[in-house]
Amino acid sequence: MICRGLLLKLQSDALIILPPRKFTPNNPFLNRKLPEVIKVDQSCIECNLKDIQPIKLRSIRKMKFEKLYNSLIHEHHYLGYAQPVGENFKYIAKAILQHLRNLHTIYGFLRLLQKMAK
User: Which domain of life is it from (predicted)?
Assistant: First the structure.
């Protein structure tokens, strides 16, 4: 890389003329695809917190839920999605209902979690 850098510097200073590039290698880090949009039920959950307990945080790094996480961050985070650099954590909160009367309020979200787990 040092020789290549030196040659490019000499060409930019007009001291040498390099032959044209034969090809430009594909750089997967520069050409990342945006996460696919996964639609989730966004209806309001109107119940007491005790009705949807226990709420569990699940680490979803390198799991099927990671696509859901990336999609939600891309859709709803004010900065959008960017591939993080270095060590990072990805968590999703999962709520389990204690009372069947509240089942319809988060049925769509639970159904999506079940689909992603398969």
Answer: Bacteria
